[in-house]
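Anyone up for a design puzzle?
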């Protein structure tokens, strides 16, 4: 479970003062009513939750992973010992989305060491079954923090898909039911409301290691480590989101996040639009739509070059190169791509101490009205686009700004 560290707010418990008896209001007699039966005492909301859990909890999946990690022993040669192999274990949640047994979960639940690829072994277990079965990766979408896996050898009668809802129609205050395995407590259920329908937070894992800002559902239904990948349901039992992160003040101090009443879920419509591509990925990686450009400003990181925005350069350096204060420098443009069709142009690469920058080409400073200073900013605008959609770019070349409309075609999604 990823931990978003934020500020915590204290709370004060106030006790209401209430009359001790009816005498203070002039009443002289009290009437009693018979104790209601359990069935009669259930509120409509309680019964609704019970019905949702009874009907759809069998579609929840408990996921466990194992990853072999080789650790170097710098003094091993003194004692005739080589590198040591350790097995790291993890747990998470997921849910069935179709009769074929495909399971949606978070990418970070099944990711390999360092957030790359997938874990060495992935197993799943369904409700009321003690035995786990292996699962294989069908498709990975790191930048969306989504993954699709499929169990091997699972009895088809145990596959219970949960219906997918429409996250675009959500309203703040709606009921939200979270299912998953918090702290490894498999098949747990919590309830709350939708606190926000369009919270912008970093989600996923980009090429530079930073999360891509995306729209998320905020809920106060308790979500904790292990809930990752589990479904967030509405009062009709339809999946409206995939639990992914929490805001945890305690996690800043301990490194282990715990629910503070602010959890986030990936809107299910984002997953639904990506599902066909995940199903066709053959175990590979699915990314956000591409314009067909490469970043033209890279600096040397600890182990590889990293693309950055113009804000990483000094103002003096940008003035000397004739570049704007902020923006994404276009390094190259792929022939036949949407960017090429729109007339975007890359620059000539020049080396400087610690990196390289393209000069003489285009710099993207905004996309659909949103400021752009890095590849992640552009991806944040593109991430929910579909084939045929357009993106409106504000581009600077040679000190002159212009507007460019780029239309996404099939090549953007390959």
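Challenge accepted. My sequence:
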């Amino acid at each position: 479970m990823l931990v978003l560290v934020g500020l915590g707010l204290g709370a004060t418990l106030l006790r209401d003062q209430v009359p001790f008896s009816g005498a203070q209001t002039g009443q002289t007699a009290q009437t009693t009513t018979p104790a209601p039966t359990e069935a009669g005492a259930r509120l409509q909301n309680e019964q609704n939750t019970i019905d949702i859990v009874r009907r759809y909890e069998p579609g929840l999946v408990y996921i466990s992973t194992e990853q072999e990690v080789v650790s170097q022993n710098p003094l091993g040669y003194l004692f005739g010992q080589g590198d040591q192999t350790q097995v790291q274990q993890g747990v998470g949640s997921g849910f069935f989305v179709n009769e074929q047994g495909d399971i949606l979960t978070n990418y970070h639940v099944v990711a390999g060491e360092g957030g790359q690829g997938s874990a060495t072994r992935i197993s799943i277990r369904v409700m009321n079954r003690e035995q786990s079965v292996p699962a294989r990766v069908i498709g990975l979408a790191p930048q969306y923090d989504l993954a699709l896996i499929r169990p091997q050898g699972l009895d088809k009668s145990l596959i219970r898909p949960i219906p997918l809802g429409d996250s675009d129609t959500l309203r703040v205050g709606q009921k939200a039911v979270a299912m998953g395995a918090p702290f490894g407590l498999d098949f747990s259920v919590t309830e709350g409301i939708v606190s926000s329908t369009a919270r912008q937070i970093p989600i996923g894992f980009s090429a530079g290691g930073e999360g891509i800002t995306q729209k998320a559902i905020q809920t106060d239904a308790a979500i904790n480590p292990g809930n990752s990948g589990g479904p967030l349901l509405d009062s009709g039992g339809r999946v409206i989101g995939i639990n992914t992160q929490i805001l945890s003040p305690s996690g800043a101090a301990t490194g282990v996040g715990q629910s503070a009443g602010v959890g986030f879920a990936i809107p299910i419509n984002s997953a639904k639009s990506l599902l066909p591509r995940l199903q066709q990925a053959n175990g590979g990686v699915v990314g956000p739509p591409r314009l067909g450009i490469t970043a033209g400003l890279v600096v040397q990181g600890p182990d590889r070059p990293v693309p950055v925005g113009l804000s990483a350069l000094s103002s003096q350096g940008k003035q000397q190169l004739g570049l704007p204060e902020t923006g994404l420098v276009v390094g190259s443009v792929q022939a036949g791509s949407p960017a090429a069709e729109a007339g975007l142009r890359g620059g000539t690469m020049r080396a400087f101490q610690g990196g390289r920058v393209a000069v003489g080409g285009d710099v993207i400073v905004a996309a659909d009205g949103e400021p752009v200073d890095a590849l992640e900013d552009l991806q944040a605008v593109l991430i929910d686009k579909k084939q045929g959609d357009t993106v409106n770019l504000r581009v600077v070349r040679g000190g002159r700004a212009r507007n460019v409309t780029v239309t996404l075609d099939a090549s953007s999604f390959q």
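A detail worth pointing out: The chain has a mean pLDDT of 84.
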